[in-house]
Design goal:
Elements lengths: L1 H28 L14 H10 L6 H25 L19 H36 L4 H15 L2 H14 L22 H38 L2 H8 L4 H39 L4 H10 L3 H29 L7
Helix pairs in contact: 1-11, 4-5, 4-7, 4-9, 5-7, 6-7, 6-9, 7-9, 8-9, 9-10, 9-11, 10-11
Length: 340
C-alpha cells in the first residue's frame, strides 16, 4: 500500500503540470484586456509600462514558466516562513493579482476559511443525515419510509443550488418576520467573530441557509449510494450465514452489512469533496459568502488571469489529491484488494 501511494503521488506530478498547462493555454485564448479598466487619460507609454510590469509583453511560454516558478518555488517558501518563522523568502516576485495588485495566495488564504466553514459543515450534516436514512431505507425496502426517502432524494438530485438558494431565501428570509424563530439572514457576514454563546448562535443562523443548500444536494447523492450498497450486501451469502448462526439482526446489520457497505460509500465521499467546492461557487454568490468561489467569479468578471489561473489549478489539484485518497481508502477498507 505504501508503494502504491508513493507511486500514485509521483504520477500526480506530471498530471498536475499538464493540467496547469492546459488551464494556462485556455486562459490565454480568453478574450479581454486587463488594461481595459485603466482610465483613458493614462498615456499609451504608461499603459505599455504597466503591461510589462504585469508580464504581458513576454511570450506565453515565458509567462507560464514564471508562473510555475512562482507557484511551486516562491509560494512554498513564503508558506514555510509563515509557519516556522524562517527567512527563506527574499523579496522575490510572487503571483500578483491584476485586480488588487496584491499576492494571489494571500487573498486565497484569507478566503479559504469562509469556504471551509460552509462546505465542511454542509458535508458533515449531509453524512449524518444521509447514511442512517440510506441504511434504514435499504433494510425496509419499498416501505413508506423508503419511498419518501427516494422521493426527496430525487428532488435533491433534480433541483440545482441556484434554484434552492433563492427559494430558501424567499421562504426563510423574506416571508418570515425577523422576530420569528424560523427567520434566517440571507447574507453571510464574514466579519462576524464568535466570542461567546450569543455570537455562536448568530454564526449558526447565518450559516443555516447556505449549509442547507449544499447539504441537500450531497444528502441526495450519499443516500442513494448508501441504500444501493446496503441492498447489495443484504443479499450476500455471508448475511444468510450470520442469520443462520442465530446472530441478532442488529449485529448482522451494523457489524457485518454496514462495514462492507461503507467501502464504496467512503470512496464516493472522498471523490465528492472536490465537487462540492464547485457547488459552493454558486452558493457563495447567492448568499454573499466571501469565499474562494465568489473570489473566482469576481476574478472572471475583472479578467484577473493570475487569480483565475491559481484558483482553477487549486480546484484541479483537489480532484487529483482526493482521487489518490479514495484509492488508498478503498484498499485499506477492503482486504480483498491488494495494490502491487
Amino acid at each position: 500500500m505504501l508503494t502504491f501511494t508513493i507511486r500514485r503521488t509521483i504520477l500526480a506530478i506530471p498530471t498536475l503540470l499538464f493540467i496547469s498547462l492546459a488551464i494556462f493555454l485556455l486562459l490565454q485564448l480568453a478574450p479581454g484586456d486587463p488594461m481595459a479598466q485603466v482610465p483613458l487619460t493614462v498615456p499609451a507609454e504608461v499603459k505599455q509600462q504597466m503591461r510589462e510590469a504585469l508580464g504581458l509583453g513576454a511570450p506565453w511560454y515565458v509567462q507560464y514558466w514564471k508562473w510555475l516558478v512562482q507557484m511551486f518555488w516562491i509560494e512554498p517558501k513564503v508558506a514555510i516562513d509563515a509557519l516556522f518563522g524562517t527567512s527563506l523568502y527574499q523579496d522575490e516576485l510572487r503571483v500578483i493579482s491584476w485586480q488588487t495588485r496584491s499576492p494571489v495566495m494571500d487573498i486565497v488564504m484569507q478566503r479559504i476559511p469562509q469556504t471551509l466553514w460552509v462546505v465542511g459543515v454542509a458535508y458533515v450534516v449531509a453524512i449524518i443525515i444521509a447514511l442512517p436514512i440510506g441504511i434504514y431505507s435499504a433494510y425496509r425496502q419499498y416501505s413508506m419510509f423508503d419511498n419518501a426517502g427516494t422521493f426527496f432524494s430525487m428532488i435533491g438530485f433534480s433541483i440545482p443550488p441556484y434554484f434552492t438558494g433563492p427559494l430558501l431565501i424567499v421562504i426563510f428570509a423574506v416571508n418570515m418576520p425577523q422576530d420569528s424563530f424560523w427567520w434566517f439572514p440571507s447574507t453571510y457576514d464574514t466579519t462576524h467573530k464568535v466570542v461567546d454563546w450569543d455570537s455562536f448562535g448568530v454564526q449558526v443562523r447565518q450559516m443555516f441557509l447556505p449549509v442547507m443548500v449544499l447539504a441537500l444536494q450531497i444528502t441526495a447523492q450519499l443516500n442513494r449510494f448508501m441504500r444501493s450498497s446496503v441492498l447489495d450486501n443484504l443479499n450476500q451469502d455471508y448475511v444468510r450465514t450470520a442469520r443462520a448462526k442465530g446472530l441478532p439482526e442488529r449485529v448482522v446489520l451494523l457489524l457485518h452489512v454496514l462495514r462492507n457497505s461503507m467501502i464504496p460509500v467512503v470512496t464516493v465521499i472522498a471523490l465528492q469533496i472536490p465537487n462540492i467546492f464547485g457547488g459552493a461557487i454558486i452558493t457563495e454568490v447567492i448568499f454573499k459568502v466571501n469565499g474562494i468561489g465568489q473570489l473566482l467569479i469576481t476574478a472572471l468578471f475583472a479578467n484577473d488571469l493570475p487569480m483565475v489561473m491559481t484558483l482553477t489549478f487549486i480546484f484541479a489539484a483537489l480532484i487529483v489529491i482526493f482521487n489518490i485518497i479514495a484509492d488508498v481508502l478503498y484498499g485499506l477498507l477492503d482486504p480483498r484488494i491488494r495494490y502491487e
